[in-house]
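Researcher: We plan to redesign the surface later, but first we want a full-length starting point. Tokens attached.
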């Protein structure tokens, strides 16, 4: 396994699903991981799982949709010595625009898109002229654009476009920006039960969160001259 020793990584939404798997993968490689999520129980469970890794892990409660929480998170990270990598992963599911309330679709936009931009901006500032990595977890929904997903698709399409442009803005500042767009991943965001998800994973109809985490590790351990601009990772058997 490649080493992440001496690196400090902030993972938004690091308490469940893909974010938690990324935290465990990087901590096993020696990274110090800082995670946050919205719920104390999930944070406690994630930190307990991270106790078995060689890296240090700390966490806090915060909501990516709230600018004041993001400011608090980055102040916390600065007090711990700064950051080498930021992974914007926190997100929520959202249905079609006509099927959800104004409050729900606005919250989805604030979490899944505006929150990503806020995190990316604070990350670039936190690196303070040093090399750094920003990894954005998007979705194949940016291109697939299926029925009853218009709000979610809007957020992920926005992330896709933002990542392409932001990467060009950051390159000369020694900051790499990478976008990962997973397909269906077994997690708490899925409507299917854990048992159904395990069956789909066994049938190669769904990814494990660890598949995405391993891809993050690959991206972060490339030579500094390289940027993995974007990667689409999907289940082998697709409908």
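Model: Full-length starting sequence:
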């Amino acid at each position: 396994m490649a080493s992440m020793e001496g690196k400090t990584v902030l993972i938004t939404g690091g308490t469940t699903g893909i974010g938690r798997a990324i935290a465990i993968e990087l901590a096993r490689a020696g990274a110090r991981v800082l995670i946050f999520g919205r719920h104390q129980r999930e944070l406690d469970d994630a930190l307990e799982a991270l106790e078995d890794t060689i890296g240090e892990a700390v966490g806090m409660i915060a909501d990516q949709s709230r600018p004041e929480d993001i400011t608090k998170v980055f102040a916390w990270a600065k007090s711990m010595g700064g950051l080498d990598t930021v992974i914007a992963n926190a997100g929520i599911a959202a249905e079609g625009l006509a099927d959800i309330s104004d409050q729900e679709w606005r919250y989805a936009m604030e979490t899944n898109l505006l929150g990503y931009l806020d995190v990316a901006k604070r990350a670039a500032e936190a690196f303070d002229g040093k090399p750094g990595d920003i990894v954005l977890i998007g979705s194949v929904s940016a291109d697939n654009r299926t029925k009853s997903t218009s709000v979610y698709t809007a957020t992920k399409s926005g992330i896709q476009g933002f990542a392409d442009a932001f990467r060009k803005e950051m390159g000369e500042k020694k900051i790499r920006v990478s976008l990962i767009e997973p397909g269906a991943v077994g997690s708490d965001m899925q409507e299917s039960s854990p048992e159904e998800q395990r069956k789909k994973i066994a049938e190669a109809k769904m990814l494990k969160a660890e598949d995405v985490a391993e891809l993050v590790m690959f991206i972060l351990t490339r030579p500094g001259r390289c940027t993995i601009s974007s990667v689409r990772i999907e289940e082998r058997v697709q409908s």
